[in-house]
Amino acid sequence: MRHRSVADLMTPTAVSVVPGTTFKEIARLLNDFDITAVCVVDESNRPLGVVSEADLIRRRAAGARPGTAGTLMSSPVVVARPEWSVVRAARVMERARIKRLPVIDDDERLVGVLSRSDLVQLFLRRDRAIQEEIVEDVVTHTLMMSPSALSVEVEDGRVTLSGTVRRSIVPVLLRLCNSVDGVVGVVDRLRYEDDDLLRK
């Protein structure tokens, strides 16, 4: 069982600017590419900061001179790596309260960008793909159970589990199913033929 990586979901062609890029040019890029922020990079394509729509609006609302990317950007920049799981990236976004993460390679160079809208793709996974991952990876390979022991139904990302299992594996089973990319909830309709917890 593997969470999708940042590399799987990121946009590989990140729009970037240099520190000298003007306010007006940044605004034009945001509009032309229908994005909410751009990464500011140095001459080696290494991220220095990020300029967002909010930065532009705040600057104009304060009545200050428009400025350039170097004076408008938020820095230091919070970045992600291509090999990160999207779960890790989402937690970083949440903790930093940002909507986009520049993605850098081993040389610290910009290779893409991951946005919240990219993460939404996880919840658009086909129900069949989710079902197959639970049956093959969770039930068969991780828990070493026969796939016929459980019924796994998925509808709009909501998983319903039914069948007869040992009570002791239920918390693990539910946790693993909840961790599968695209799952929005798990309904437990399991029965316990062998209550192994009572024998301990």
Automatic annotation (TrEMBL):
CDD domains: CBS_pair_BON_assoc. Pfam families: BON, CBS. Residues 126-194 form the BON domain. InterPro entries: BON_dom, CBS_dom, CBS_dom_sf, Diverse_CBS-Domain, UCP036990_CBS_BON. The keyword NAD does not apply. Keywords: CBS domain. Residues 10-67, 73-130 form the CBS domain. It comes from the Bacteria. PANTHER family: CBS DOMAIN-CONTAINING PROTEIN CBSX3, MITOCHONDRIAL (PTHR43080), OS02G0818000 PROTEIN (PTHR43080:SF29). This is Inosine-5'-monophosphate dehydrogenase. It comes from Streptomyces globisporus C-1027.
